[in-house]
Each structure stands twice: as C-alpha cells, then as structure tokens.
Design brief:
Layout lengths: L4 H23 L9 E2 L11 E2 L2 H18 L5 H23 L3 H17 L6 E4 L2 E4 L2 H22 L5 H19 L3 H21 L8 H21 L5 H7 L1 H16 L12 H7 L4 H21 L5 H33 L1
Antiparallel strand pairs: 1-2, 3-4
Helix pairs in contact: 1-2, 1-7, 2-7, 2-8, 3-4, 3-8, 4-5, 5-8, 5-10, 6-7, 6-8, 6-12, 9-12, 11-13
C-alpha cells in the first residue's frame, strides 16, 4: 500500500522553502560575503564572479528532511549510513570550495564515503539486466560500488557547469526515484527522495538562467553522492533494478562518461579543466543558457518517464527501450556536432 502523502508533502514543502530562502540570502550582496565566489576559468561559461555557496541551501533542506524522518520515527539503518557519507562528502567539498584541496584528498574522501555505504549494506552486489541476473563475489561488489559511487560524485560535479542544469537533474531525477518509493510502499525512501528534489527546486529558483548563485562543489558532489546512494538503496529495497536508476540519471551519466572516454582517446589530460561536455559545446556554439537547459529538461523528463514505465515492461521491451535511448543519445551527439559546424560556417 502506498504511504500517506500528507507527511511527504509537508516535509518536502518545508525543505523547499528552507532551501529557497537560504539560497536567496546567500545570493544577495549581504549573503555573498559568506562562502566563495566562482571566478571565470577555462571550464566555466559565465563572465563575472558568482557566489557558489548555493549547495548549502540544498544541504539545509536535505538535513531538514532527514531530521523529519527521525522525528516521524521513520529512520532506517541505511539512512544513517547515507547521512554519514553525505556529511563527509559535503565537508570535504566545502573545504575544497574555500581552499582547493588536492585531487588525492578529495578522491580519498569520496572513497571513504563509498566505503560507508558498503558497511551500511548498500553495496552493488549483483547486476540485474532485463531477463537475467549476475551475482558478484564480495571483492568485486566492493570494487564496483567504490567505482560507481566515486564516479557519480565526480560526474555530477563535472556536469555542474551551466545555469540550472545540475539543479534540474536533481529535481527530475529524485522525483522519479520518489515515485518508485511511493508506489512501492516505502515511505522513508520516498520522503528522502522528495526532500532532495524539493531542496534542489528551492535552489533552482535562484539558479535558473541567468543564475544568481551556483551549487559549488559542496552542492554538486553531495547531489552526486545522494544519486548513487539512493539508487543503491532503491535497488536493495526491490523498487527497481539498478539499471533503471542509471536510466533516470543517464543525461548526466552518458554525457560525462562519453566526454571522459573521448578525451582519453584524444590523449588529453582528463584532470584539467575543459569545455567539452555537450551542454558546454552548445553554449559555445551560440545557444543561450536558457535554450540549452530547457532542451535538457525535456530530455530529463522523457527519460524519467521511460524509467518509471520500464519495470512494467517485458524483458524484450526493456531491451528495446534501452536500445532506443542509445540511439537517441547517439543522435544528440551528432546534433551537437552539427550545431558546432553551423556556428563555424556562420563565423566564416
């Protein structure tokens, strides 16, 4: 039976309002003195310094949601481990926002956060694909969980480079996961996912183009950790196979992974700042931030709807769905290249 909507709606609304008010405060001249500024660099698409403490507003809403779950007596063991991993990633990321920690320190913290999830029985123990399941030995499950969580944390950070993009992915992505929790009768899971989506929505009010504030690493890395952790938790609860959560967040996973592999193939230094993601290339080719992000929202909504429908399909139809999205992403890649070529021709 689906859980009552009343506590879910009330808590998520409170998280949204808290995030919205705190983010607006941080985005004002008075509030921008607290926290760092994002100065234009080789990776960025903005021309003037912008506060990048908006992730604190998102975290405030998420923490409120966790406290509400505790107050309602809905606290689960897995949620405590997720909270610990979140605090670790958020702390290290905020310190990085303030003083640029070394990549080794950041990756070590990300690995420790993934380890907390494993200790909390949230490891990736099997691969569920349409029609068959492949169980992993313990050592491989540990390695795959570490890689998955660390990559999700970092790819979300990589994709946070344009007004409204990372916040929008959080709204669409965690709303889809919340639906699975509500439909599957998992009140705690649904509450947490709704709280994250609402917190991101409150931030998005000040981040939609033209953005007055950015997430910063403290926000983007935390959202990446939550995407990985809640995907693993939902799969453990039997709400969906893990590949469905991958599909939900595929607008980020595909772009970031494809870009990384392409840069490796070109022999580039992948640890250095760049502007090679699809969204960056579109903006550099002349698309506005608003046009690009609205197209991205359409993609996120469509892929989320397909992910919600996927568990009810036959294995054959699920493979067709995945194949269809592979084709769509291929077309998007070709479209980005076409936009770039047209822009170069216009300049010439």
């Amino acid at each position: 039976m689906s859980p009552s909507l009343t506590p879910l709606v009330l808590v998520s609304m409170a998280a949204l309002v808290l995030s919205l008010l705190l983010t607006r405060r941080l985005a004002t001249r008075a509030g921008s003195g607290f926290g760092p500024l994002d100065h234009p660099n080789e990776r960025s698409l903005h021309a003037t310094p912008v506060p990048r403490s908006g992730g604190l507003g998102v975290l405030a809403g998420v923490i409120l949601t966790l406290l509400a779950a505790l107050g309602l007596g809905w606290m689960e063991t897995e949620l405590a481990w997720i909270g610990g991993a979140l605090l670790l990633v958020a702390l290290v990321s905020f310190l990085d926002d303030l003083g640029h920690l070394s990549p080794l320190v950041r990756l070590t913290a990300h690995g420790l956060a993934a380890g907390l999830l494993v200790f909390g029985a949230l490891g990736w123990s099997r691969l569920d694909l349409p029609g068959f399941t492949l169980a992993f030995p313990g050592w491989l499950a540990l390695v795959l969980t570490l890689l998955f969580v660390v990559w999700m944390i970092n790819l979300y950070n990589f994709m946070d480079g344009m007004d409204g993009l990372a916040g929008g992915m959080a709204v669409f992505g965690f709303l889809a996961l919340a639906w699975f929790g509500w439909h599957g009768g998992e009140a705690v899971y649904s509450l947490v996912c709704l709280g994250v989506a609402a917190s991101a929505g409150g931030f998005l009010v000040s981040n939609f183009p033209p953005a007055r504030i950015f997430l910063g690493d403290v926000g983007s890395s935390s959202l990446g950790l939550l995407a990985a952790a809640l995907a693993l938790w939902g799969a453990k609860l039997g709400l969906f196979p893990l590949w469905v959560a991958w599909l939900v967040f595929s607008p980020f996973i595909v772009d970031a992974t494809w870009t990384l592999l392409a840069r490796l193939a070109r022999g580039e230094r992948v640890w250095e700042a760049h502007r090679s993601h699809h969204y960056q290339r579109l903006v550099l080719a002349g698309w506005s931030h608003r046009r690009t992000v609205l197209r991205a929202y359409g993609l996120m909504a469509a892929v989320g709807a397909c992910a919600i429908a996927a568990p009810g399909l036959t294995p054959a139809d699920q493979w067709m769905l995945l194949g269809g999205w592979a084709v769509i992403y291929g077309v998007i890649h070709l479209k980005v290249g076409l936009v770039e070529r047209r822009a170069r021709m216009d300049v010439a």
